[in-house]
């Protein structure tokens, strides 16, 4: 099966710490994800970005399940 980034959809944006926690929880139930960290990229390039510029992506086919998990995790906070 071909892994195409066009099949990826953003499910959540927050800080790097929160996104990593969400990613870990999704991995526990078999949902692979991709993190796009604009903050880190901006710092490395010499210009800034918001620390909340970290996005979590999943395959479109996992969107509903991932969204449900993320909502549950946010309710626990």
Automatic annotation (TrEMBL):
Annotated DUF2007 domain ranges read 8-73
Q: Name one Pfam family in it.
A: DUF2007
Q: What is this protein called?
A: Putative signal transducing protein
